[in-house]
Amino acid sequence: MAHQYEYEYFNVSFPQEYVAHVEINRPEKLNAFIEVMWLNISQIFRRLSHDPSIRAIVLTGAGDRAFTAGLDVKAASSPDGTISSTGFSDPARKANALRRHIIEFQDCITMLEACEKPVICVLHGIAYGLALDMSLACDIRICASNTQFSVKEVDIGLAADIGTLSRLPKAVGSMAWVKDVCLSARVFTAEEALRVGLVAHVYGSKAESVGEGLRLAGLIASKSPVATMGTKEILNFSRDRTVEDGLRYTAIWNAAMVQTRDVKDAMLSGIQKRKPTFEKL
């Protein structure tokens, strides 16, 4: 199956049954993103979302130095880069072209959130800018103790526009802290990220973190894929709405999904003290 997921800047592997491992692979540039990379990551996660052989995904960065340093600013600022080249001199037309481009970039990163399968992001080393955009679109974030986070965009003269400013306030409990890190672009540690709830766990090294991410993915993949898909869908829907809206949506969703044979299989496996098996989704 791996040959179906061949991309220049990503390694896609399948380390255990029903688990995919997506590795950002541009370590010589601290895994910084150029345009083809964010287009490809969208393609990868869209395919994994509908791949019946996948039930959980782990996202990591290659090398020891960085998960990703964010957008490759030098490439984006070049004469033919994403920031400079709109093809228009008229301000309104140039603004409209940039707006379309930003929305396209946003949609690519949102694909991690829209993916039907649970996504675990494992961060290490430098995790700046786009690292926050991507990890906040994932379902679970864990990291190594050496991870250094920063919402870096104000240092390059712009407001973060790919998702952090919209998702970070919903991921942690303090708007004061969110404004602190977003307005100052200061670097904060894994310990601080754990304290505010940005990450679920901190482990000693990158290797340990990746191992734990794969272990968790394996555990999730052992559950009913109907159940994990529904849980992710309902949690994401309910996050931005009232409890009443969430309850109504859950009722409608489960009116169909609770009819799955997976419910009977899961219950019987508990009674019979055996590991359940579920059909591909």
From TrEMBL:
Compartments in which it is found: Peroxisome
Signal peptide: none
Keyword DNA repair: no
GO molecular function: delta(3,5)-delta(2,4)-dienoyl-CoA isomerase activity
Pfam families reported for this sequence: ECH_1 (PF00378)
Acetylation listed as a keyword: yes
Keywords linked to the UniProt accession: Acetylation, Fatty acid metabolism, Isomerase, Lipid metabolism, Peroxisome, Virulence
One cellular-component annotation, GO: mitochondrion
Pathway(s) per entry: Mycotoxin biosynthesis; Lipid metabolism; fatty acid beta-oxidation
GO annotation, biological process: fatty acid beta-oxidation
Family (UniProt): Belongs to the enoyl-CoA hydratase/isomerase family.
Protein's name in the database: ClpP/crotonase
